[in-house]
Amino acid sequence: MKAEGVRLITEEGLRHDGRRPEDLRPIKMQVGVLSNADGSAIVEYGKTKVIAAVYGPREPPQKFMLLPDRAVLRVRYHMAPFSTSDRKNPAPSRREIELSKVIREALEPVLLLEYFPRTAIDVFIEVLQADGGTRTTGVTAASLALADAGIPMKALVAGVAVGKVNGVLVLDIDEVEDSMGEADMPVAGAPDLGLITLLQLNGVLSEDEFKRALDMAWRAIERIVEMEKEVLRGKYGLAPAQEQGGVEG
Ligand code: ADP
Predict the structure, then answer these.
(1) Could you tell me the pTM of the whole model?
(2) For labelling, which of 127, 154, 155, 174 has a CA lying 20 to 30 Å from the CA of 3?
(3) In the chain, what are the domains?
(4) Helix orientation angle between 94-107 and 134-148, rounded to the nearest 10 degrees
(5) Closest ligand 1 atom to Cα of 95
(6) Quick one: DSSP state of residue 111?
(7) What is the pLDDT of residues 225-246, one digit of tens each?
(8) Candidates 1, 77, 93, 134: which one to mutate for ligand 1, based on the most atoms within 8 Å of Cβ?
(9) 82 C-alpha to center of ligand 1: Å?
(10) 130 CA to centre of ligand 1 in angstroms
(11) Which contiguous run of DSSP H or E holds residue 125?
(12) CA max distance for the chain
């Protein structure tokens, strides 16, 4: 359903949850949340809650898929059956298969996979609660989990989606804004490399809106990567953080 006739921006310019257009939802991050994984992280953007687990580099039983010159990165994005208000079919959907590929491509450019030939690195992204932006929250959680697993990386990656509702560009859209808005543009990247690794657009934006939306996303990604660094410093003792292994912003 689109927002024609549905007001998602008040007279005062506020969004349905009280945020201003350029506001992120409250973000929480924690690393090292699963003892059985080599690295893990849980990330919340508002009500969207995603856990990521990393295993490897390891030699999987399926040797045929290994590469002689680098590690293979395998990513599985999955929404838990209890993550939505209607029970979601647990079998992998076409959307989940596509998002697994999109997230893998968002992570691959920052990983030094050539350090681990003939191995596999597995990233499991499980959406625990979905309220819009699960792919971008998933990229942020995976980046933290990969760092927590000690996988050598050129830079950290984060993601956020910008949308357009009632003609207004809004940062970090939730499910209501996504389903009723005019456009949804998920972006991910590594600010320390000046690299965009994920850029999708569902809907229509003018050239000027596109540039403004990208700028809005990029500035938010810079802030989210700083939060990632803070949570990693908190766990690994490189500098003081708000809380051992976790930050809120
Ligand atoms: P993203 O989660 O990255 O924004 P989509 O734009 O495909 O990806 O989905 C937007 C939102 O719609 C999701 O975050 C979730 O809240 C909801 N959603 C997606 N797929 C389903 C599903 N199969 N059942 C119920 N809700 C869903």
Answers:
(1) 0.94
(2) 127
(3) 27-232 (3.30.230.70)
(4) 50
(5) 7
(6) B
(7) 999 999 999 999 754 444 445 6
(8) 134
(9) 13
(10) 7
(11) strand 120-129
(12) 60
